[in-house]
Write a structure and sequence with these properties.
With 274 residues, the protein is α+β, with helices and mostly antiparallel strands. The chain has two domains: 110 residues, Beta Barrel (Thrombin, subunit H); 97 residues, Thrombin, subunit H, CATH 2.40.10. The protein is built from five helices and 15 strands. A six-stranded antiparallel barrel has the order 1-2-3-8-7-6. The longest helix has 19 residues. The radius of gyration is 22 Å and the shape is globular. The termini are far apart.
């Protein structure tokens, strides 16, 4: 009888262990346990992101030209393309935060935008001019082109994912350039499949967003959000914003919306050349 109980206990223990073994199910993973480090390498993603620097000129009330610089992160893709958030390359107002007795107030210095230039900054500081192909302020997505393929920032080596397949708890990485420093990788999980009440106030279509628990800081806008499907890296979004600077909850733009904009851009380009 005692031997039977021991056998049953070991059998239950074995079955429990087997049920917890990660399996390849075609879905996004809840951890990095299926990642084969020999084929999947985060450092290759780090090498495919670069700083985007946008210089915008505004005209003040007295006619003086004011220069404003904006920084973010861009992802280099095949075809000399660069993805980022639209607000990284399109600044319509020059504002400054002012401390007041009741808190911080944002003051508009000028809303008379003259022109702007955007650059992809290589690791050695060399700047490659970027040409906007599509800027959707409503979606906060920008697709830009480079005049040539730089050898100092590699092309993103993995695939574009399907953000409709994301589930609460899926593990994600944000690969960005926080505070305009060297590229940095942070991990988190998908915490919401749509935007929250705050994003609904500032974003036209919160259904194109998802929430994740990896805090974003200045310079992270436009960073790729990476998930793992059966251990393979895929980009599932573009980092857009954070609830507050103290918060660990950020949100990203679903990659499916970006792919829709890419298809629209290709169709428009094909009609123009037909």
């Amino acid at each position: 009888m005692k031997r039977l109980k021991i056998t049953m206990f070991l059998l239950i223990l074995f079955l429990t262990a087997c049920s917890s073994v990660p399996v390849r199910d075609g879905l996004y993973d809840f951890g990095a346990f299926l990642v084969d480090g020999r084929r999947m390498d985060l450092s290759q993603i780090i090498e495919s992101v670069g700083e985007i620097n946008t210089e915008t000129r505004f005209k003040s009330e007295n006619g003086e030209i004011i220069r404003h610089e904006n920084h973010g992160t861009g992802l280099v893709l095949p075809g000399n393309l660069v993805f980022t958030a639209a607000h990284v390359v399109m600044v319509n107002k020059f504002t400054q935060n002012v401390f007041t007795p009741i808190g911080i107030a944002t003051v508009v210095i000028s809303d008379q935008r003259v022109d702007s230039e955007s650059f992809l900054v290589e690791p050695d500081g060399n700047r490659i001019p970027l040409t906007p192909l599509l800027i959707s302020s409503a979606d906060d997505v920008a697709i830009l082109s480079m005049p040539f393929q730089t050898e100092k920032i590699r092309v993103f080596p993995y695939g574009l994912g399907n953000s409709d397949d994301l589930r609460i708890g899926n593990m994600v990485y944000v690969v960005g350039r926080p505070m305009n420093q060297e590229a940095n990788v942070r991990e988190g999980i998908v915490s919401g499949l749509k935007g929250n009440a705050l994003t609904r106030e500032i974003y036209e279509n919160p259904d194109n967003l998802f929430m994740f628990t990896s805090g974003l800081v200045s310079g992270d806008s436009g960073s790729p959000i990476i998930a793992m499907r059966d251990g393979k890296y895929e980009i599932v979004g573009i980092a857009q914003g954070v609830i507050s600077t103290e918060s660990q909850f950020g949100w990203g733009i679903r990659i499916n919306r970006v792919k829709e904009l890419m298809r629209s851009l290709k169709m428009h380009s094909a009609k123009r050349h037909s």
